[in-house]
Amino acid sequence: MPIRQLSETMINQIAAGEVIERPASVVKELVENALDAGASRVEIVTAGGGLNLIRVTDDGFGIPQQELALAIARHCTSKLADNIHDIRSLGFRGEALPSIGSVARLSIRSRTATGDAAAEIGIEGGRVSAVKPAAANRGTTVEVRDLFFATPARLKFMKGERAESSATSDVVKRIAIAFPAVRFTLAGSDRATLELPATDDSAEGRLRRVAQVMGAEFPDNSIAIDASRDGVHLTGHVSIPSFTRANALQQYAYVNGRPVRDKLIAGAIRGAFADVLPRDRHAVTVLFLTLDPATVDVNVHPAKADVRFRDPGLVRGLIVGAIREALANAGIRAATSGAVGMMAAFRPGAASYAHAGPANGHRSYDAAYHASGFAGFDRSPQRPLDMGFDGAGFGENDQAAFDSGPLASADARAGTAEAAETLLGTALGAARAQVHENYIVAQTRDSLVIVDQHAAHERLVYEALKNALHSRAVPSQMLLLPEIVDLPEEDAERLAMHSETLARFGLGVERFGPGAVAVRETPSMLGETNVQQLVRDLADEIADNDTVETLKERLDKIAATMACHGSVRSGRLLKPEEMNALLRQMEATPGSGTCNHGRPTYIELKLADIERLFGRR
Ligand code: ADP
Ligand code: MG
Fold first, then answer.
1. Of 54, 301, 349, 415, which residue is the least packed, with the fewest Cβ within 10 Å?
2. What is the pLDDT of residue 56?
3. Using CA atoms, how far apart are residues 57 and 38, in angstroms rounded to an integer?
4. How far apart (Å, rounded) are the C-alpha atoms in residues 75 and 93?
């Protein structure tokens, strides 16, 4: 076959193959056009999952009658003057309408503010009809019928009405978050109506729109983000660590107001939450990046969902840093929702708590380290984290005394009556008892608090290790005799390779012949620990993450592995003052509301809720 120029319709159909993947892509393009036209109301109607009908009506500035034919011609746009590096509109490629017109039956009816009457143009499978007068208010209505009738192969790929309608809802929600001052409605015989009344562009207005889309419980379970670095500005909200989803679909990101699905941003969010979320859980996030349009390329893919940053490291660093700092400043806070029925009354954590106490203040290393009390517990100088309750120093008699009256003489246990009164005013209250050898039951003025002592302590050790690490001063203790650990040769080699990193944690490891390492010193914080097990766990941790991790991430993981070894195990009996001390440490330590695996470390039941449970209210 000789080479020949493709017909205009064929060219448009080829473009449509990229731009118009499914009904939701049509909705995306048409809604973007409406927003580019300055609309304050956008109404979307679909039928048959969008395959039979998509109609988008806006009250924007409209298309002059004499430009209607151009609007549906390829490479015709009113949005790009002459600089591809300075794109401020959602559209700019001038190919959506001709692409849609090449694979469906498209009609556009429009009226400008100055136009006396509306006009209409149609295009079906690439065949354009003449412009004719019509009746309409100011704005534009674009109607798309029989999508893909001209390309049956694509039609076969559609997933069915339900899936296509829900993909369309997702598109509308995603874009609506970026335009809070615009009212959106999405209706049709194939769906439940979605109505998003206009709010405004203020921070509160934005959050209200987010709540319309993500659910009313999101604002109460999220933290505001606001940070800048080198001309890049980041705002938005991220969920607290106990408010998570099983997938990342509820992570919305915007670059200069454009919804994007970007790997770099998704990776940064994952990194920021790595400490506080289990691997299979995902944060809920809405993040807006604003930066000089010249430093970001949005012309990567015809659907414009991908972007390229000129300085990806800057963007990643900003996101990770801002989220981590916000999480740390928010202090202890666990989800207020998720449970139903009676369990709904047992609220993990307390929102009020998050607003009280030193945990919210700016955190310097010293403050956090000392506030978290490891020094305060220091009974033997070499074992500050030992806290005296690692089993060794806990005699039979002590246990008996404690067992005999866990619910009695609470005031005596808390010291004087005034001291007890003061404790009741703290966020986590006065410890009253330890039950099932792992749960501390405490009482505040208006609630009952239950703490998972193992989870809480593990978190405290982890935070202290990380803090100490950042100060580059993790004290270590020499072992009287080096401990020899036999390992597979690769593990021994790996540990030796990372010996400098491990030394920063106060763990002195060196090669000891083939298939073995010698441990000469251990981090003082861990107290007396099972060195053999610790070293093996660290070898596993390093093996799992050898190549991809940044040093910082690797250090945090090592800290987590170590924390696990240094923590109060469940099943250990605590003295009242030890329990109270643990509660005070939790209050003072940012992030201690969830354990290293993202589960809550305590739950709180309000007295009012208890009364409700007993039918007293
Ligand atoms: P692009 O959005 O990339 O410019 P489109 O094919 O989507 O390309 O639209 C072509 C042109 O038609 C736009 O540049 C705009 O001038 C006009 N247009 C399309 N939809 C609307 C609308 N709803 N209101 C006003 N003008 C519109
Ligand atoms: Mg467009």
1. 301
2. 98
3. 13
4. 6
| Centre of ligand 1 from the C-alpha of residue 27, in Å | 13
Distance from the alpha carbon of residue 177 to the mean position of ligand 2, in angstroms: 19
The 3-state DSSP composition of the chain as helix, strand, coil percent (nearest 5) reads: 40, 20, 40
Ligand 1 atom with least separation from CA of 90: 2
The CATH code of the domain at 412-611 is 3.30.1370.100
Q: What digits encode the pLDDT tens for the residues 474-523?
A: 778 888 888 999 888 888 888 888 888 888 878 899 998 888 999 998 87
Ligand 1 site, residue 35, Cβ cutoff 6 A: no
* Start-end of CATH 3.30.565.10 domains in the chain: 8-196
**Alpha carbon of 7 to ligand 2 centroid (Å):** 22
**In degrees, to the nearest 5, what angle opens at C-alpha 400 toward C-alphas 398 and 406?**
95
Yes or no: say if 161 and 190 are a contact pair by the CB < 8 Å rule. yes
In whole angstroms, how far apart are CA 184 and each of 127, 173, 175, 181, 213? 31, 9, 10, 10, 11
- Residue among 30, 33, 70, 301 whose CB has most ligand 1 atoms within 8 A, to mutate: 33
**Among all ligands shown, which has an atom nearest to the Cα of 78?**
1
Q: What is the pLDDT of residues 274-308, one digit of tens each?
A: 878 877 788 999 999 999 998 998 877 777 778 89
On whether the CB atoms of residues 129 and 123 are closer than 8 A, the answer is: yes
Answer whether 101 contacts ligand 1 (Cβ < 6 A): no
Which numbered ligand comes closest to the C-alpha of 121?
Answer: 1
Higher pLDDT, 22 or 16: 22
* CATH 3.30.300.210 for the 215-329 domain, yes or no: no
pLDDT exceeds 90 at position 50: yes
The dihedral formed by the CA atoms of 28, 34, 40 and 44, expressed in degrees to the nearest 10: -50
Task: Report DSSP letters for 466-492, one per residue.
Answer: HHHHHTT---EEEEEEEEEEE--HHHH
Inter-axis angle of helices 161-178 and 23-36, nearest 10: 20
Q: Please tell me whether residue 194 adopts helix, strand or coil conformation.
A: strand
Q: What residue spans in the chain does CATH classification 3.30.230.10 cover?
A: 215-329
- What's the distance, CA 62 to chain centroid? 38
What pLDDT score does 493 carry? 87
Task: Please state the length of the chain.
Answer: 617
Decide yes or no: CATH 3.30.565.10 for domain 8-196: yes
Task: Look at the block and give the residue holding tokens 């005799």.
Answer: 481
Per-residue pLDDT band for 94 (boundaries 50, 70, 90) equals confident
- By CB neighbour count within 10 A (0-12 exposed, 13-18 middle, 19+ buried), where does 285 fall? buried
| C-alpha pair distances (Å), 491 with each of 325, 520, 546 | 35, 18, 11
Q: Are 37 and 121 in contact (CB under 8 A)?
A: no
Q: What are phi and psi of 172, to 5 degrees?
A: -65, -45
pTM score over 0.70: no
Cα-to-centroid distance, 79 and ligand 2 (Å): 9
Query: Has residue 77 got a pLDDT over 50?
Result: yes
Cβ(31) to ligand 1 under 6 A?
A: no
Instruction: Quote the distance between the C-alpha of residue 248 and its chain's center.
Output: 8
Block residue for tokens 């001709």: 98
CATH 3.30.1370.100 residue spans of the chain = 412-611
